[in-house]
Amino acid sequence: MVQLLLCESSWGDGGDEDSFKLRISLLDKLESDIGSLISSRARSEARLWLCNAIAGIRSIMPCYQRDLFVDLLRSKPWKRGLAAQLWWMIFEKMPQKAGKIIARKSCMLEKFFEGNPRRILHWFSNFSVGGGLGTSKGGKALSQFAFVNRDICWEELEWKGKHGQSPAMVATKPHYFLDLDVQRTVENFIEYVPEFWSSDEFAESLKDGEILSIDTKFFVDVFVDLMYKEDSRSVWEAIDEFLMEESFSSLCQHLLIVIEEPDFCLFLELMHKYINPNMERVDFGCSSCWLEIIISKCSHFESIDQILLLNAVINQGRQLLRLVHDGDEQDGQAKIKDVVLQIRKISSNAKGLVPILKCFKTNTIEVIKWLGLLSWVLHYILSEECLTPESWESVFTKNGISFRKSGKYAYLHDDEFAEENGPDLHDRTSIRARRKKKEKSRKKRRKNSDHDDVYEDELLNFGRSSDMLGLGSHNGSWLLSTDGYATSWSSVDLPEHLSKHCFSTWMSWIFTKATSVT
Question: Around Cβ 359, how many Cβ atoms within 10 Å?
């Protein structure tokens, strides 16, 4: 019988000291085995899991998230990879912020177009009759500047025809601009008309940031250089604005994946300054709650190994279990299974948790680690041993969890309803009888109909496929008191749900009782 340790014991009982030491020794051994597994086969995946968990933190205000990432960006050595990823985000989500900066530095684009016909044609081609919607932004800037400054640049316009066009002729017939040889004209402007590259017309064409799409990597490098080599005030102001406006979740998911592990440690240390979990309203059902507590308590991280493991056992129990079983290393699997079974033997009731819980004040991180590992042990055991509806209902009953059968997979007709409590033989029998009666009547009315034959075949096939998918009585689903009967839990999801429920329950005990322990 699987004991979930949900019955709170008196904290006045210190428990068996020898059992406590043995349990800690075994949990440390399990930590080592799982840590080796993650390091050798799933470190990148575990880092992604951690990034997602950090992204779920909600206690950091926008002004603090700005300061957090700016501190990281300004730390030495320069974080060019992180800065580049940030500008990719800005270009994608708010290109106008970069476009306004480029517009103020438009003269630098003279070099961008020099000797590059592809860029020239991309930005300056496409003229439409009358300069309408079909005209590109660069083409519009070129034509407007040419008319306004025709005395200094008209001769530099190159035409595809046998002869050029006069300003007066093009003014009355704007479609003549369709005959402009764009590449040769822009090349002339690069060499002979420097005024164009700093003109209002050209700058206006750049403000919305569309030009960034021509060669995004080029502009990313430009902005990173403006950050670090020129320390451009306008560039850092744009960064500040974006970091305030973008969600913390999005920033973490896009930026943390590119930083090196020493910088990841630095990020966690910087978070320590800005994170402030509300202990009065702590919600241990939140996947990032425990992470906030650890970061708020720890100001130095030598490595991310321990926090990677903690996140894996607490938030990614199912994926971690799959990792254990999918590998080819039979010895590693056997070691983990052996330790799990040993821990189970000495974890028969919640009384044994008291010595662990009482350590919280002096050793917060270690206690959270032990409880996380212990919850994963329960996940492992439940996944291995609870293989039938009867075994699950036995676990519920023995651990004081109220439950109701879920009607989630009931096969209903329009005038039939599944009972919330499900397993009533009389109700199921009468429903089955009514269904058979309807089918018999339907067959009689459509006795000679081919369509009816097809319908019956489909109905039978549905029944067979439902059994194959586990939607019949063999694999049940339940509504549980653990979440107020809010969700229908299947046998596939129950190990993860119950192990997380145990962890959150134990953590709640700590925060409601730890202050009273002397």
Answer: 17
